[in-house]
User: Which sequence fits this backbone?
C-alpha cells in the first residue's frame, strides 16, 4: 500500500498547534507581524499572497500586504523594505517573487534584515543553513522536512536525489537533507542520464516545473517521492513534475499535487513567522 503524504491534513494539524502558540503570545502582548510586499499584478502571485494572508488571519497573525504598482522603482522598493526592517511590529518580511524587470531581485533580497527574512533567501540565511547553524529556512524545503517527519520518514543514511537546484527549493533542501544526515545528490538540466540517477534514490524530490516529467521507469520501487512541481498539463489541469498515476503504485509514499507540498509551504511560513515573534519576546 502506498502512503499518500497528505500535506493539507498535516498542515492543518500543525496550524491547530500553532494557533495555541499565537494565542499564548497574544496573552503576553505580542502579535506576530508578517509583511508581504507584492509588486505589480501577476495573477499567480496575487493568489499566493491571498492564500498566505488567509492562513495568517485564521491564526491571529497580523498580516500586512503592501501592494505596490508594477512601475515601482528598485529604490522605492528598497525604501519600503528598509521601513519594514525598522518596524518593531513586523517580525517577518516577504517580498513576493518574481519582480518586474526594472528591479534587481537579489538586491531586494539582500536588503531585508536577515533576522526578518522569513523566506530564508538572504545569503546570510543560506550560509547559516550550509554551515548547519540556526537560521530561517526557505518555506518549501522546510515544509518538505516537516511532512516527512510527520509521516515518520527518517532521511538519515538514505540516498536522496533532488532534481532542481533553484535557490527557493533544490539548494536549501539539499542543505536541510545533509544536516539531517542524508546522502544527497542534486540533479539539474545538465545532469547526464538523469533517470538512471533518479532510480537510485530512496527519497526522490522533484522540483523542475515540467508537467509529469518523471515516469515510473525513473523511480526505484519502494521509493518515497516528493513532487514539488505545480504545472499545467495539456488539458490545463494542475499536475506535478511526476507522472502520479504511474509512479504512485510503485512508490512506498508519494505527495499528491495539489494537496502535498503546497499547503506545507504556507504552513512553514506561518511557523517561522511565529518563531520570529517568539524571538522578539524572548530576545
Ligand atoms: P526554477 O525554474 O527556478 O528551477 C528549476 C530547476 O529545475 C532548475 O535547477 C533546472 O535546471 C531544473 N530543470 C528544469 N528542467 C529540467 C530537466 N528537464 N531535467 C533536470 N532538471 C531540470 O523552478 P522552481 O524551483 O522555482 O520551481 C520548480 C517547480 O516547483 C515549479 O513547478 C514551481 O511551480 C514549483 N514550486 C512549488 C512550490 C510549492 O509550494 N508547491 C514552491 C516553489 C516552487 P538548471 O538549473 O540547470 O536550469
Assistant:
Amino acid at each position: 500500500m502506498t502512503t499518500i503524504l497528505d500535506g493539507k491534513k498535516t498542515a492543518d494539524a500543525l496550524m491547530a498547534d500553532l494557533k495555541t502558540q499565537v494565542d499564548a503570545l497574544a496573552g503576553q502582548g505580542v502579535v506576530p507581524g508578517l509583511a508581504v510586499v507584492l509588486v505589480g499584478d501577476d495573477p499567480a502571485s496575487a493568489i499566493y499572497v491571498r492564500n498566505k494572508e488567509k492562513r495568517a488571519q485564521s491564526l491571529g497573525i497580523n498580516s500586512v500586504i503592501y501592494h505596490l504598482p508594477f512601475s515601482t522603482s528598485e529604490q522605492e522598493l528598497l525604501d519600503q523594505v528598509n521601513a519594514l526592517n525598522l518596524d518593531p511590529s513586523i517580525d517577518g518580511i516577504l517580498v513576493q517573487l518574481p519582480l518586474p524587470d526594472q528591479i534587481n531581485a537579489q538586491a531586494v533580497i539582500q536588503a531585508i534584515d536577515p533576522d526578518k527574512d522569513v523566506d530564508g533567501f538572504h545569503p546570510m540565511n543560506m550560509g547559516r543553513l550550509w554551515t548547519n547553524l540556526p537560521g530561517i529556512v526557505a518555506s518549501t524545503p522546510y515544509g518538505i522536512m516537516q511532512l516527512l517527519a510527520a509521516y515518520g520518514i527518517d532521511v538519515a543514511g538514505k540516498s536522496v536525489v533532488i532534481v532542481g537546484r533553484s535557490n527557493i527549493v533544490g539548494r536549501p533542501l539539499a542543505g536541510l537533507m545533509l544536516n539531517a544526515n542524508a546522502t544527497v545528490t542534486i540533479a539539474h538540466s545538465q545532469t547526464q542520464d538523469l533517470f538512471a540517477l533518479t532510480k537510485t534514490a530512496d527519497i526522490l524530490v522533484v522540483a523542475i516545473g515540467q508537467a509529469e516529467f518523471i515516469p515510473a521507469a525513473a523511480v526505484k520501487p519502494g521509493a518515497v517521492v516528493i513532487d514539488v512541481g505545480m504545472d499545467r498539463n495539456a488539458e490545463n489541469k494542475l499536475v506535478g513534475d511526476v507522472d502520479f498515476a504511474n509512479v504512485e503504485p510503485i512508490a512506498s509514499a508519494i505527495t499528491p499535487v495539489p494537496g502535498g507540498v503546497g499547503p506545507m509551504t504556507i504552513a512553514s511560513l506561518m511557523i517561522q513567522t511565529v518563531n520570529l515573534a517568539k524571538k522578539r519576546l524572548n530576545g
